[in-house]
Amino acid sequence: MSVPDRTVRASRSTAPARKARTAGKARRSLPSPTGASHPVSLKRLKSLAGYLIRQAQLWVFEDFNETLAPLDIRPVQYSILTVIRENPGLSQMALSQALGIVRSGVVPLLDGLESRGLLKRTAHASDRRSHALRLTTDGNALLKRADALVQQHENRLIQKVGPRGHKQLIEILKVFGKRDELK
Asked: I need a surface site. Which of 14, 24, 140, 153 has the fewest CB within 10 A?
């Protein structure tokens, strides 16, 4: 094992302890790499949309995950359940394409949701090689609870950017929801 490998492993193993020690403390300015007392400049990065989108994504995912933690639902699972509710009988292939998840990646996600009793797969009426997806009663009940929590998350986002900013943000981000048009 090389020295860098040990450094990476050591930092990974101490990360939870470090996180626990710093939890709840106010975020401090990053120290300068030269040891100067002034904060590290992020001026250039803060002028780049990609960097700011990534920072927003980190906030959104952290808040979303914390919000849905009591239901043991991750963002991708929420998306899958929502699309199936809105499109009962949808095939796995259509779900995969709609959400941009590779076919081989969607199967274990569906397996997990099915093992929890949240959805069921049945043979498709017109193609026995395909499965039609439907939520179970438990799946609908869980998704109803999740929707209420997601609305709380969305309300926190609205508080952060304001109602007008939220509407603008939705309109801007819709451009990226049109994957076929971006190519």
From this structure: 24
Rounded average pLDDT over 60-75: 96
pTM: 0.74
Residue by residue, DSSP assigns the chain as --HHHHHHHHHHHHHHHHHHHHTTSPPPPPPPTT--SSPPP-TTGGG-HHHHHHHHHHHHHHHHHHHHGGGT--HHHHHHHHHHHHSTTEEHHHHHHHHT--HHHHHHHHHHHHHTTSEEEEE-SS-TTSEEEEE-HHHHHHHHHHHHHHHHHHHHHHHHHHHHHHHHHHHHHHGGG-HHHH-
Point out which residues pair with 123 in neighbouring strands.
Answer: 131
Q: How far is CA 179 from the centre of its chain?
A: 17
d(CA 57, CA 49): 12
Percentage of the chain exceeding pLDDT 70: 77
- At 55, give phi and psi (nearest 5°): -65, -40
Task: List the structure tokens of 134.
Answer: 């439907």
**Segment of 21-30, 40-49, 121-130 carrying the highest mean pLDDT:** 40-49
The answer to whether 123 touches 132, Cβ cutoff 8 Å, is yes
**How many other β-carbons are positioned within 10 Å of the β-carbon of residue 132?**
19
